[in-house]
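PROTOCOL LOG
Step 1. Enter all chains and additional molecules of the complex.
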Amino acid sequence: MGNRREGHVLLGVNVLVYGYIPSAWRSPRLDSRDFVEPAYWERIGRLAERATLDAVFLADALSLGDPAYDANPIRLDPTVLWAHVARATERIGLLATASTTFNDPVELASRILTLDHISGGRAGWNLVTTRDNRSAANFGLSGIVARTERYERAAEFADLTRKLWTAAETGETVRFHGSHFDYEGDFRAPASPQGRPVLFQAGGSPAGRDIAARYADGVFAAEITPETAREHYGLVKSAAAGYGRRPGDVKILPGLLLTLGSTEEEARRRVDELYDTSPSAYSAAWLTHAIGVDVSKLELDEPFPDEVLNGPIDETFQGSIGFRESILEQIRQTRPTVREYLRRTRYSGSGHGGFVGTPEQLVDRIEQWYLAGACDGFNLQPDILVDGLEVIADEVIPLLRARGLYRHEYETSTLRGHFRAAEPNVEKTLHPVG
Ligand SMILES: Cc1cc2nc3c(=O)[nH]c(=O)nc-3n(C[C@H](O)[C@H](O)[C@H](O)COP(=O)(O)O)c2cc1C
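Step 2. Run joint prediction.
Step 3. Record the structure below.
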């Protein structure tokens, strides 16, 4: 492909409560109780809107994480938080993650549709299946359901939810007879102001990608290199075409962990300082969990053994295949020792791509990936809020605009509209700014 691509990048911010750094909550820049303050969430929403980002994004956890490896053990319900932020903002999209394993489709369809009305058509649902035993225990199960079954339920869940949202517009009776859900009835709810709430999917296994290709408007992906990102991008887009959809109907936004500074050195110092406030065992516990291999049994000063990098996946592994693949791919390419890798994650990411440098360098990277056809945009994950988001608003976005990679103002008033407006030659009158 040539080095010109029409349209502009899509940008979300994955809030992760206080930022992606595991010890963000300990930062002197924050008050560790901010997450229960409505004012904190309003501030984030307004700031993201000042940056004219397409969406704010919240992950979802149904249990308190293990503080040994869970960066953000404290989370509140994303849909409730975004309902609050909806009142403090006017244009920014509001993407809330929710599990198909531990929700009911009728209840969730109506909760997201309610957020859609409260926000004037800015709601989106990010579909996940939940992968941990602690969450399962909170719902009275002895362990998490196997991935295959979780995804079978997720596919039906997505299908039914879309049918319910469509029925809200058409008034049709919904008849759905699957192996997980049986529904026959009228979904009496007012039609979505944006046609249908936006549907995202996060999960990089073949089953996850299949749901994305069939039903999703967007994918929150985990990608480390532009080459593999491009390959996965092609897979999802061509699978979408196989389901009779246009490639542009499903947008792909990898996560990108960010530490920015006015010089590269300053950015590196910042990330080192932030990581040094984390317990030293954090990275090893995180990696054990993420790839399903007991990292404490590996030789720290040796490269990762071949059976870890290329061996068959343990059938009992219920974690994310998408994250696992992107981590192992990076290790295969760079061949670090275990110790080097654990240290390097602070510069290169941990399943998601990582970036440490200046706003100018970040814009180079965004441009490179976008023009290479590796993504449609990014879900940015600043190290620490709120200042990490301020730098995006004040420095990164103006640079992107100067290069013609980002719009100067919102062109539409709904999340679906923002997504469509990113494509060249779209019918922009569909969702005019009112
Ligand atoms: C980028 C990305 C983000 C994810 N975010 C969440 C999340 O917020 N909450 C959650 O329960 N699972 C999350 N997951 C997990 C998956 O959605 C899914 O539930 C499961 O672990 C299988 O993932 P896989 O398709 O990559 O194997 C995420 C996965 C990926 C790749």
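Step 4. Note key features.
Residues 428-434 have pLDDT under 50 and may be disordered.
The chain has one domain: 10-259+353-421.
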